[in-house]
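Subject: design request, 85 residues
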C-alpha cells in the first residue's frame, strides 16, 4: 500500500505533503530531523492520509495536492477541523 499524507507542524502554521509506503516510519523520520524540508518545523503530527494500491496513483495525487490548486482547496475544506487541531 502507498500513502499520501499531510503533516502539520506543532510549532508553526505550516503543512507538509508527501507519499510513502510506511506512514509510521516516515513520521518518525520527519520528527527525527532526517528530512531537510521539515526539520526546522519540528515536531510534526499526522493529520490526514489516503491509501493507494498503485505507486503511480499515490505520486500523482501528491503532485495534485502540492500544486495547491482545486484538489488541495477541496481537501482543506473537508479536513478543516483536523488542520486546526
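Subject: RE: design request

Done. Sequence follows.
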Amino acid at each position: 500500500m502507498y500513502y499520501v499524507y499531510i503533516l502539520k507542524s506543532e510549532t508553526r502554521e505550516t503543512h507538509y505533503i508527501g507519499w510513502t509506503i510506511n506512514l509510521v516510519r516516515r513520521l518518525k523520520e520527519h520528527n527525527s530531523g532526517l528530512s531537510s524540508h521539515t526539520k526546522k518545523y519540528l515536531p510534526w503530527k499526522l493529520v490526514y492520509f489516503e491509501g493507494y494500491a498503485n505507486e503511480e496513483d499515490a505520486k500523482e495525487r501528491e503532485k495534485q495536492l502540492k500544486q495547491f490548486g482545486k484538489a488541495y482547496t477541496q481537501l482543506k475544506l473537508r479536513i478543516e477541523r483536523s488542520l486546526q487541531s
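The longest helix spans residues 55-66.
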